[in-house]
Amino acid sequence: MCELYVKADPILYESRSRSLRIRGVVTTLRLENQFWDILREIAEVDGMTTNQLIAKLYEEVMDFRGEVVNFASFLRVSCTRYLAQKAGRQVPLRMVGAAG
After folding, report:
1. Residue 10 has what pLDDT?
2. What is the residue range of 58's domain?
3. Domain count of the chain?
4. 52-72 pLDDT, tens digit each
5. Euclidean distance between CA atoms 78 and 50, whole angstroms
6. Widest CA span of the chain, in angstroms?
């Protein structure tokens, strides 16, 4: 099992920063290359650029939650949820055993 993880190309987990405009403010996001690739895929499926997708996700989470404590982490979780949905697995709304 570990070979699946340890033999991953190091470029996949190398971080890269991108600047983009969200709500009129230029901001920088730092994510691992693999997450940038997944966000690009999601954006292509939705007919958007990666920056448009990220701005839309920010708008939607702010409208729904009113705040985002760690937007980069939100994007990573969004990517894993997309992959689970793409694989045909049910995507839970909460963590198993989470309070609330």
Report:
1. 86
2. 10-86
3. 1
4. 999 999 999 999 999 999 999
5. 13
6. 45
